[in-house]
Specification:
Blueprint (H helix, E strand, L loop, with lengths): L8 H9 L3 E4 L9 H13 L6 E6 L1 H4 L4 E2 L4 E3 L8 E2 L7 E6 L1 H12 L1 E3 L15 E7 L15 E5 H5 L3 H4 L2 E3 H6 L3 H10 L6 H15 L6 E4 L4 H11 L8 H12 L5 H13 L9 H11 L14 H9 L1 H17 L13 H11 L12 H16 L8 H15 L6 H9 L9 H8 L8 H8 L9 E5 L8 H6 L4 H10 L6 E5 H7 L4 H8 L3 H10 L13 H19 L16 H8 L5
Parallel strand pairs: 1-6, 2-11, 4-7
Antiparallel strand pairs: 1-3, 2-6, 3-5, 7-8, 8-9, 8-10, 12-13
Helix pairs in contact: 2-4, 8-9, 11-13, 13-15, 13-16, 15-16, 16-18, 17-21, 18-19, 20-27
Length: about 600
């Protein structure tokens, strides 16, 4: 494997621009963060080695068998994360990068393009929250003292940030692409002259140093593989990517699938499906790992682990042949999850999607399954099983592949008879993943906080009267505005009791599910006041209290909070123990579904 002559960054990027340097399908996508790019440019500026690169010289005949991609130039987390596919009809050799893509892409983005990421505390659904940023070098001086040990002041800046600067300050911020575009130092001097900096020694020295590092310094050296044996190239690729930012097995699976699928682009199919599924309902956060794992499970490949030995041509062909049906089953499953009220914020374990998609795959279910009245009981059973599996700690953690294989066996044997809840629970319990709880689990769930991903599925499980297809909010029964430390202090509540109330206000006994409009109308009113206004007749109030497991006497003042909290906790505890199959010895023979303490409480008069 020969060394190629060293060359400059600018010359290498000109090969990228000309399409002479490309990315093979086995490469993963760009994953570096903005600060990593800044560190790379700091190293370049300081003359530090930035590592060697590995390329593969692909003959025209070999190139026809594979797909190739271009380098990203304008990267955006919102809508430009995927490399552009190249339609190559090579009449000459293609040079494909096997190792060094992250560094070369970073250089390409910094010197020729831009980086767009989401502003903090903004919604990820709107393009305007992902402003385009260009890399700049501060010519006014070196970097201020920093924990990263950076010597030079490179920053990603928005156009608006530059425009808002005073003219004198703006002159010192030199865009890095300007340096690349200046093919000679004379062109850069003219730019400094326009800024009034040509006679300032320090800014001119910094600008010249960056130009020289890009255009004159031979900092890029490639080793080049010329063998056309794909197996050898894959082996090299795996080995060189086992260090640094490790190549995930899912990345390799996607890469090999892309190289081996003949009639479609696996990378485009997987990424497109991920984007599509994540846009369903209130939005999800499924990854390509989850989709690829689903493909292994649903296609019937025996070993579903992300292991190199599983990525055979035969397995990839099987995955390709069934891809349309697999994707359709995942779409139906995600639609069901949205119907269950779940989203990326409340789905604490994405892996639970796989068994549901597998069952729907065996049933050949289409989107009509979500509406078919004949399937209502089965959908309810799936929902109950999903929600319980989400709230029990550790179900979808370690040993996932073993669990999924066992679940697949059960579903393959029982799917024709309906969703096999009992069989699934039995095989899960035998592997230490029981969905039946104990008092310790129940007490832990009662202490869940507002904002915990498990809080919504837990409330949805306990209050199955809630139509989760409508937008519901996890709401505080006792309004938080009345339980702020300042309000409590002004009301004369002592420090210890104040701390206890502040801790309890966000825990499960003070939470319920309310539809969006109800939640808005409730605002900061005390529970008794809001219920009297929202439901003037006593029968409606009684029914509401029963449905939501509220104490018969709702609090009307701040002083009522502690008694309310304890009473609601007892009611929720009784319901949870029933749902999770927790029984004391004396309860074993009790009538299924009875809750003596709850029934007694519900018979009491509702006092507002």
């Amino acid at each position: 494997m020969p060394y190629l002559p060293e060359t400059t960054i600018a010359a290498t990027l000109r090969e990228v621009v000309g399409g002479d340097l490309v990315l093979p399908a086995i490469q993963r996508e760009f994953v570096w963060r903005p600060e990593q790019v800044v560190r790379l440019f700091d190293s370049v500026m300081r003359g530090y080695p930035i590592g060697s690169f590995l390329s593969w010289k692909v003959s025209p005949e070999t190139a026809k068998q594979f797909k190739f991609y271009g380098f990203l130039r304008r990267y955006s987390e919102f809508d430009s994360r995927h490399n552009p596919q190249l339609d190559l009809l090579p009449s000459h050799d293609v040079i494909a990068v096997l190792d060094g893509q992250q560094r070369l892409t970073s250089l390409n983005i910094g010197l020729r393009g831009s980086f767009a990421w989401k502003r903090k505390y903004t919604h990820s659904r709107f393009r305007e929250n992902f402003p385009e940023r260009t890399l700049y070098l501060n010519l006014a001086g070196k970097a201020p003292e920093n924990a990263a040990g950076l010597e030079y002041d490179f920053r990603w800046l928005e156009a608006g940030q530059i425009d808002s600067m005073e003219e004198g300050e703006r002159a010192y911020w030199l865009s890095v692409p300007t340096v690349y575009e200046s093919s000679t130092m004379r062109e850069l001097w003219r730019e400094l002259g326009r800024r009034g900096l040509a006679n300032e020694e320090s800014p001119a020295d910094l600008a010249q140093l960056l130009w020289e590092r890009v255009h004159s310094h031979n900092s890029i050296q490639f080793f080049q593989e010329t063998d056309q044996d794909i197996e050898r190239v894959l082996d090299i690729f795996i080995r060189v990517n086992s260090g640094g930012t490790v190549l995930a097995y899912s990345d390799l699976l996607l890469s090999i699938a892309t190289a081996q699928w003949k009639d479609r682009d696996a990378r485009q199919e997987v990424h497109g499906l991920v984007d599509e599924l994540n846009a369903v309902g209130a939005g999800f956060s499924f990854s390509k790992d989850l989709i690829l794992k689903s493909g292994l499970v649903l296609s019937g490949i025996p070993d579903i682990g992300f292991k190199v030995k599983n990525f055979t041509t035969e397995n990839m062909a099987k995955l390709a042949d069934q891809w349309d049906e697999i994707a359709a089953s995942l779409r139906v499953a995600v639609g069901l999850f949205s119907d269950f009220g779940l989203s990326g914020a409340t789905l604490s374990a994405n892996s639970v999607l796989i068994p549901v998609a597998l069952y729907l795959h065996h049933r050949r279910a289409t989107q009509t399954y979500r509406e078919d009245p004949r399937m209502a009981d089965e959908r309810a059973a799936i929902k109950n099983w999903v929600l319980r599996s989400l709230i029990i700690p550790g179900v979808w953690g370690s040993g996932l592949d073993v669990l999924l294989r066992a679940i697949r066996d059960v579903i393959e044997q029982s799917a024709a008879r309906g969703f096999p809840v009992a069989d699934l629970e039995r095989v899960m319990a035998s592997r230490g993943k029981s969905l039946r709880g104990n008092d310790e689990v129940v007490d832990g769930l009662l202490d869940l906080r507002y904002g915990d991903p498990r809080t919504f599925p837990l409330l949805a499980l306990m209050f199955d009267h809630v139509n989760t297809r409508n937008q519901h909010h996890v709401d505080h029964v006792y309004p938080t505005a009345q339980l702020k430390p300042g309000v409590l202090r002004d009301a004369g509540v002592g420090p210890d009791e104040r701390a206890l109330i502040v801790d309890r206000k966000d825990r499960l006994p003070n939470l319920e599910l309310l539809e969006g409009l109800e939640n808005i109308s409730k605002s900061a009113k005390f529970p008794a006041e809001w219920l009297a206004e929202a439901m003037p007749d006593e029968s409606s109030r009684t029914a509401y209290i029963r449905r939501n497991l509220l104490p018969p006497t709702l609090p009307a003042t701040l002083a009522d909070f502690d008694a309310f909290y304890q009473a609601r906790r007892d009611l929720l505890r009784a319901r949870l123990r029933e749902l999770l199959g927790v029984r004391r010895d004396e309860e074993v023979n009790a009538k299924e579904g009875s809750l003596p303490a709850l029934d007694e409480a519900m018979e009491a008069e509702v006092r507002l």
